[in-house]
Amino acid sequence: MASVKIKVDGREIAVEKGTNLIEAAKNAGVAVPHFCYHPGLPVVGVCRICLCELEGRPKLVAGCATQVEEGMHVITRSAKVADARRAVMEFLLIHHPLDCPMCDKGGECTLQDYTMLMGPARSRFKFEKITWPEEDVGGKLVLNKNRCILCMRCVNLCKEVAGLDEIAVLSRGEQTYIGTVDGRKIENELAGNIADICPVGALTSKDFRFRARPWELTNVSSVCPHCSKGCNITVGYHPRRNEILRITARTNMDVNQWWICDRGRGGFHFLHDPKRLLAPARAANGTSRPVPWKQAILDIAQALRDIIVRHGARAVGVVGSGTLTNEECYLTRAVFKDGLGVSNVDFPPRPQPEVAYKKFTIEGDKDPNARGAALCGVAPGASGLGVRDMMRAAAEGTIKALVFLRGGPLDLFGDPAIVERALQKVDLLLVVDFVPSPVSDRAHWVLPGVTFAEKEGTFTNSNGRVQRIRKVLTIRGDTREDWRILQDLGQALGVLPVTDPDPERIFLRLAQAVPAFSGLSYSTVGELGAPIAAATADVAVG
Amino acid sequence: MLTATFEPVLTKTMQYPESHTLEVYRKHGGYEALAMALQKQPDEIIDMVKRSGLRGRGGAGFPTGTKWGFVPKSTDKPKYMCVNADESEPGAFKDRLICQKDPHQLLEGTLIGSYAIGANRAYIYIRGEFAHEARLLERAIEEARTAGFIGRNILGSSWSCEVTMYVGAGAYICGEETGLIESLEGKRGWPRLKPPFPAVVGLFGCPTVVNNVETLACVPHIVKLGWEWFSSIGPERNSGPKLYGLSGHVNRPGVFELPMGISLRELIDEHGGGVPGGRPVKGVIPGGASCPVLRGDEIDLPMDFDSLTRAGSLFGTGTPIVMDDTTCMVRAAWITARFFAHESCGQCTPCREGCGWMQRLLWKIETGEGEERDLDTLLSITDQIEGNTICALGDAAAWPTRGFAKKFREEFLQHITERRCPLGGGSLH
């Protein structure tokens, strides 16, 4: 695209044609304040805080709605601009309740920040303020119209990203307000983004509000584990409580732009499920007892070895998971396929209907790493069986040992009656998971793995993009990262000659073993991910 | 006196009974201009209108021919003509008269304008309160369609044009041309960010011209009598006949067709019959509520765009509101501010918040609760609104408040020091 030369406050820069003044100024290191402008939403130009001066023009222009032109000189540091900004700030605050101490947005509020930055410290407005009652507008949001500055981001998010007119601007003049029609509720699953982009405390998240002040949170970059899209997220973690309190969207133009869906946003409460599996356990005769890790690993390895010696590797079935990381999928393959010669290796897909909004699709494949699992070789080897056939074979007695790297409802793995029979019949049923499930309930051995927020690793999204997840929480109880469990098993089974101390080094091994990942490392994957090698993108490694 | 030799054209047929019918309109030469226009190239019409010096009668005074000239010639998109019949400016009731008494004159002008810009469809956006006028216009459209002035191959030419009337829901802001377009598209009547201007991206994203009723009513006469005739009337750059809507404290309020540039005092004294009881003129809002007030001693000036701008006010729609010495100027300012606060669309910050604040301050002063610093605040609010908004409503609200507060500062201060309205609220309620 053609670029134009402009000056911003005297500093000459070249920017792409079509850039607006806010973005152009940013390139020049000049921050132009803005409330209504959002790069992912249509320009509405209503807040007027971004007014800029153009040399030679008498009237100020809205920085959001004005595009650069060759030779333009944008002035943001003149008295005229300062006056206009001060004017807008004063206007925005006349009916604002100034209730920052009890407002959930406090600490991450644009209005608060700008007020601190450019005043005014006192209001000249000495009249009764217009007030509104608080309102539940659905979408897991609470609307406090008193704080609203009518930037319309919420309206435009629903309209332009979700493609639904579920929230609108109503009435006019100073009685203008944001609301739903006839008190209906917002139902689209992108509405949570409103809490992210509302520049004030008008629309806040029911799930997060009053749980913590934003400055108490440590923000960690990660990837959403709820579908194959691989949306980039920021995990808000409360270190003192060792608790995740919220998930917000992290901008990645190649994946999710500025948005995430509400399933991902709210989908972290399972981490703190009181029913989490917290210690290795051996079940026998209807009772379950904890076993120390070392003992458990050795006993399981012994049992597996015995079955292979007696019945061969064909008597073992390994059910992997598309929710495990690339590193773990690679280890699944290294231990069971390459190491033990098990060809019955597969993972069950978890499809659900795709939800396609105007500019955002919630993908139907509910595994965050199905692509990575397939690429890493979590797939049947030569004459190996798929998940359903494994269940049938186990029910018929030809498979004697089943290893589930994640449990689930019985029907995830096949006809529930067959799965039930399979689980009852096998001599060894090992389940690695972090919550109990109908499968783990029937297991001989249960090893407590961890969630996406308690380990490092990478996922490969449906588009072939490798992205990092981060360890956020301190490991709970006697749980262990799945990659560690797989390495421990591999060691005990004598099939992993070397182990690595962290997933970063496992990833390097994986990058050498699997062509699709060739050349990648955690540093090349970085914060925003990197695509797998295009030529090998669709070739699964068997 | 300018008016001695002036012959009314816009209101000429209105004196006849049933002047709103096609029959009467045609009897007096109606639709002859359309036939003449269709013999010419569209560009010739635009050129004529440019040379005539016709400036928009909706308030801004933008040269009509120039506006038409902005419509791109080479475009695959349809073009639209929009008639702004959303006359809502307090004090203005001139367009209403045309719709009522001579709707065919408007239709003929609309059709010629549509032909000139290459539009095959015109929309007449009429304010919701003009229910009677809307019915008359609707009937006029039917008549014209039946007579072959609207529809396919008009008067045997290759040009076709449909005219559709759309009744607004009663919002001043829909008289702002992009607010009108939004409303016509079925959306909230919120003005658009400009550029792009309607001539390039207008109705349904297509090139569009929005013209005031009176502006278009002038067009048939320009075609018929020539641009030279039109430009010979009135001062330079402010040519043509004009409908002045006179109201307030005058003996004969009403619409008067007179040349542009007529003296305001003459308009009030001669045509309006002076102030009742011979009372002195205290102030005149010269062109509708958004125009800054003039003091009674400032009204010896020509009523035209440039003269009023020079005088620190605005010609607006050329519809003066006269106030005698019984009028409280604070109350007048408050009533004006209340109107704009009520009509502010609420879209952009300065107008939405500033108008309501000005209204509150004015009421505070009017009721004797004001302090001197309120006057300073009031004036600074007008500065904070002016020029910082999306559309001109912000300016239109700021100007009159500033005008009243500056021109009648003494009276404002008197309210403050006496802690009451010295006129007991005055004659306005």
Automatic annotation (TrEMBL), chain A:
- GO terms assigned for molecular function: 2 iron, 2 sulfur cluster binding; 4 iron, 4 sulfur cluster binding; metal ion binding; NADH dehydrogenase (ubiquinone) activity; NADH dehydrogenase activity; quinone binding
Look up the record and name the cofactor or cofactors this protein needs: [4Fe-4S] cluster; [2Fe-2S] cluster
- Which part of the chain is the 4Fe-4S Mo/W bis-MGD-type domain? 217-275
Query: What are the 2Fe-2S ferredoxin-type domain coordinates in residue numbering?
Result: 2-80
Q: Which InterPro entries match?
A: 2Fe-2S_ferredoxin-like_sf, 2Fe-2S_ferredoxin-type, 4Fe4S_Fe-S-bd, Mopterin_OxRdtase, Mopterin_OxRdtase_4Fe-4S_dom, NADH_UbQ_OxRdtase_75kDa_su_CS, NADH_UbQ_OxRdtase_ferredoxin, NADH_UbQ_OxRdtase_Gsu_4Fe4S-bd
Q: Name one GO biological process term.
A: ATP synthesis coupled electron transport
Where would I find the 4Fe-4S ferredoxin-type domain in this sequence? 139-167
Q: Which SUPFAM superfamilies match?
A: 2Fe-2S ferredoxin-like, 4Fe-4S ferredoxins, Formate dehydrogenase/DMSO reductase, domains 1-3
Question: Which domain of life does the protein's organism represent?
Answer: Bacteria
- Report domain 4Fe-4S His(Cys)3-ligated-type positions: 80-119
Q: Which SMART domains does the record associate with it?
A: Molybdop_Fe4S4, NADH-G_4Fe-4S_3
Q: Please name the Gene3D superfamilies in this protein's record.
A: 3.10.20.740, 3.30.70.20, 3.40.50.740, ADC-like domains (2.20.25.90)
Q: Which UniProt keywords apply?
A: 2Fe-2S, 4Fe-4S, Iron, Iron-sulfur, Metal-binding, NAD, Quinone, Translocase
> What PANTHER family does UniProt report for this protein, alphabetically?
NADH-QUINONE OXIDOREDUCTASE SUBUNIT G, RESPIRATORY NITRATE REDUCTASE
Task: Please report the name of this protein according to its UniProt entry.
Answer: 2Fe-2S iron-sulfur cluster binding domain-containing protein
Origin organism of this chain? Eiseniibacteriota bacterium
Q: What lineage is on file?
A: Bacteria, Candidatus Eiseniibacteriota
UniProtKB/TrEMBL annotation, chain B:
The reactions it catalyses are: a quinone + NADH + 5 H(+)(in) = a quinol + NAD(+) + 4 H(+)(out)
Keyword Metal-binding belongs to the record: yes
Q: Where is the NADH-ubiquinone oxidoreductase 51kDa subunit iron-sulphur binding domain?
A: 330-375
Q: EC no.? A: 7.1.1.-
Q: What class of enzyme is it?
A: translocase
The cofactor(s) it depends on are: FMN; [4Fe-4S] cluster
Q: Which UniProt keywords apply?
A: 4Fe-4S, Flavoprotein, FMN, Iron, Iron-sulfur, Metal-binding, NAD, Oxidoreductase, Quinone, Translocase
- The domain of life for this entry's organism is Bacteria
SMART domains, per database record: NADH_4Fe-4S
> Which InterPro entries does the entry mention?
ComplexI_51kDa_subunit, NADH-UbQ_OxRdtase_51kDa_CS, NADH-UbQ_OxRdtase_suF, Nuo51_FMN-bd, Nuo51_FMN-bd_sf, Nuop51_4Fe4S-bd, Nuop51_4Fe4S-bd_sf, SLBB_dom
SUPFAM superfamilies, A to Z: Nqo1 FMN-binding domain-like, Nqo1 middle domain-like, Nqo1C-terminal domain-like
Against PANTHER family, the record matches this protein to: NADH DEHYDROGENASE [UBIQUINONE] FLAVOPROTEIN 1, MITOCHONDRIAL (PTHR11780:SF10), NADH-UBIQUINONE OXIDOREDUCTASE FLAVOPROTEIN 1 NDUFV1 (PTHR11780)
Q: What does this protein do?
A: NDH-1 shuttles electrons from NADH, via FMN and iron-sulfur (Fe-S) centers, to quinones in the respiratory chain.
Q: What is this protein called?
A: NADH-quinone oxidoreductase subunit F
Record gene name: nuoF
